[in-house]
Amino acid sequence: MNKSSISGWRDVLSFTFLQTMKSKSFIISYVIFLLLAALSIPVMSLITSGGLDGADAKDKPSPIEKVYVDNQTSLPDMDFAELHDTAAFRNITWVAMTENYDIVSDRIEAEENTSVILTISNTPGMYSLSFVKAGSGPVGDGSLSTLGDAVASQFDSYKRIALGVTKDQETKLDASVATKVSMLDISGNEIVKADTKISFSEYWFIYGLWFLVLMVNSIASAQVATSLVTEKSTRVMEYLLISVKPLALIIGKIIAMLSAVLLQMVSMVVVVFISSKVSAAFITGKGEDIMTKYLPENIFENLNLGNIILCIVFVLLGLIFFATLAGLAGSTVSRLEELQEGLTLFTITSLVGAYIGVGAINVLMGSGSNPYVTFAFLFPLSSPFLVPGALLVGKVSLPIAAASFALLIVSNILLLKFVAKVFETLILHTDNKIKIKDLVKLSRYKTN
Predict the structure, then answer these.
(1) What is the second-level CATH architecture of the domain 60-166?
(2) Is the dihedral of CA 320, 321, 323, 324 positive or negative?
């Protein structure tokens, strides 16, 4: 690729970027994305905190005022007095039921809709705790479930005391049991292998970056292909080709569309960050950032300027690779109605890479690094989805990351050379959709 073959790409970039930013579809989608980003964290905060009252909801008095305890076991009667130490259950009166069950049940339904019946029974091998409440009234399923969890925990303590289990025995019963399998060398020394498995939070962090790259890639690639087909069908392409070479045209359009989509994504990240801080201050009530709950504990240990720059460049190289494929696919059709058919192979290709990546993420969580994970790190179709997240949590070695980076660069160069050979013929093609075998034939001819 000589200099003249890409001269003018900046003009194409600025023209395409400005046209994209002015389009109504882009503006509408941009506003929708920002609104979704702004509302996502407050909605998550409300869901995880149980409402506007956040963490203080647990301290609100329960609507249940009286609990009739129907103890049908051989255990001594229990008053659950320890639950009075909890603010939510402080107003509850515990009464051992001496009346007929049906009489109490009917009274609760008719008069005492703030009362419930707790039945404690046992069958061979298990104890059962069940609640009965009025069909209507202030006592809801949520408040009954909260009380049930507390009662179950307290009942476990009562049961152990009644059975004569001492504190020391209780500690031993509750002690966790860990197993370890070790490998020894011929001298009997333990072979220490590095733990390459990822934690649950690391899994979701890498998966989140995987999803973000997949979303940006899909949107940007589709816009590149749509732009090419639109300009072919409206003959704008012919005017552009008067002053620039086909390769410069595709490079300018790829970078322009990636810039537009990345602008959307960066804006969404900024809005999510601001929304998270606002939610922490006004919804949770304790200044606790909900996003920090889902970040790996050691994420900041692996963050440095080199990792961040390499991660960004890696993502950009992957987006350029897939956008070039989409541009090549888009140039094989001449009408918008044929675009989906033309992008079929591209869609399959990108999904193959994405699912290889997500498969490697699951393997990393289950068993750690293995040959399949190494392949996914190195394979150009999957590495843009997988390597950035693994790099930031320190689960990919520097040699593997460097080799993956080099392979992606080589793949981009080879793909652009392939595009340079066939794009000049395809860009003005207005006949039926070009097939793969035709692309291979066209790549054998040199462009002017």
Answers:
(1) 3-Layer(aba) Sandwich (3.40)
(2) positive
Helix runs in 50-119, H state only: 101-110
Which residues, at least 6 apart from 181, have a Cβ–Cβ distance to it below 8 Å? none
- Give me the DSSP letters along 344-383: HHHHHHHHHHHHHHHHHHHHHHHT---HHHHHHHH-TTTH
What does each C-alpha distance from 200 to 206, 362, 371 come to in angstroms?
10, 10, 22
Rounded Cα–Cα distance for residues 40 and 32 (Å): 12
Sign of the dihedral defined by the CA atoms of residues 86, 90, 96, 101, in that order? negative
Helix axes 344-366, 305-330, angle to 10 degrees: 150
- Rounded Cα gap, residues 444 and 422, in angstroms: 8
Contact 151, 69 (CB under 8 A): no
H or E segment and range at residue 95 = strand 93-96
Question: Do residues 426 and 447 make contact, with C-beta atoms less than 8 angstroms apart?
Answer: no
219 alpha carbon, distance to own chain's centre: 17
Question: Of 61, 60, 64, nearest to 115 (Cα)?
Answer: 64
Reported residue count of the chain is: 448
Q: Taking the mean position of all CA atoms in its chain, how far away is CA 141? A: 31
Per-residue confidence in pLDDT tens, the chain, 448 aa: 444 567 777 887 888 888 888 888 788 888 888 888 888 777 776 665 544 444 444 557 888 888 898 888 887 777 777 787 788 888 888 888 888 988 988 898 888 888 988 888 887 778 888 888 888 888 888 788 888 888 888 887 777 777 677 767 767 766 777 666 666 666 767 665 666 788 887 888 888 889 888 888 888 888 888 877 777 666 666 566 666 776 777 788 888 888 888 888 788 878 888 887 777 766 555 555 555 555 555 565 666 777 788 888 888 889 889 988 887 777 777 777 777 777 788 888 899 999 999 999 999 888 888 899 999 999 999 999 999 888 888 888 888 988 999 999 999 888 877 776 666 666 555 555 555 565 555 555 544 4
> CA dist 80 to 61, 66, 161, Å?
16, 12, 13
Closest CA to 201 of 291, 278, 266: 291
DSSP 66: E
Domain-by-domain residue ranges, the chain? 3-51+197-442, 60-166
